[in-house]
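seq as requested:
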Amino acid sequence: MAKKNQAFFNRIQLQNEIFNVGKHEHKVFMPNEIFTELKGYENDEGVFVEGFYDKEGRKINEFKSSTHIAFAYAYVYLSHYMYRYCKYYTLWNNSLDGNKSIDESMIKRILGFPSKSNSYSYITKKGGILDRLGYIRKESDRPLECILHEHMITNGVWEINHFVMTSEYPENYGNSKNRKINFPVKAFYRGVWAEEDGYNNGTFWEIENTHMIDIDIFMYCMADKDLGVEAFYMYSFLLYQNDKFKKGFTCSIENLVSVTGLTVEIVKKQLRNLEKRNMITNNHMPFCKDKPEGKKTKANTYGVKNFGGFSKSFIEWNVIPKQRKLSAKQYEEEIGFIVDDIDEKNDETNLSRGRDLVLEESPFE
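struct tokens:
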């Protein structure tokens, strides 16, 4: 049974004591394909790699709570952030013994779960889901410093030259093989072939087909026990979709459940939580009380807000409007039923399309 989400640290602690976030230590680019690949995917050799679902689309036995898939996404995000900005020690609870290591127990607490919880080990361990899917690899060598080129690529991002590693200074760091860190594979290589060729095409170098999540958004969610990994995952998914659809992402609750792997209860709950805190927008389409057979009503359209627009306290929370209920005649006159037969199946190809692609309308209505 999964543990109930908690908030072990507030935002100030996370920013100043846990991560000690610098001015230029905010941006993390995540691979778009993570939303589909967490479920499982067919690799370049045509072999299905099992994720949270098996080849037949059934949940694996360990996947007992939809919080697990949200935990996996947040865990990968944190691994990207920690490696990119060399965040393996914290000032939290500092003592004369020096800085405290951000180890696996600390990572669990950052994500809102007790340090001794074993519910998620099948996701994070060597040979676990994230290892199997090629997102995380346990390694001993860790980065000390990120050396940048003298020029930027795009979106104000400096190109990485290389990382200075502990293995380069054995006299200072000795034998650190007992301590493992999470190597973010997709940050370096977007495919097995790239690693075999030694070609850095991961999200640290190439940001096509990515979505950018600021560490402020992560900390905002982790410091609020009602948000946590579930809301962070949902917000990140909606942000990814809003990168593609300039008019907002239109999607039914049923399809949000299908494409995220979350339960209908969690989807509804976190959409409300995100909207209350002014993290997303929702146009709240009316409900048709006596919808004629064969007619389709329009789904809600979701937009995302930047971190600067988030509510600073519950006093600024939005009031969620009650859904309007219209008769079929009123709906036809005010809104209009969908005439075309829109394909509501999950289009995996479209879900993994690029960061720079901007479409007029969403296909998941």
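Residues 341-360 have pLDDT under 50 and may be disordered.
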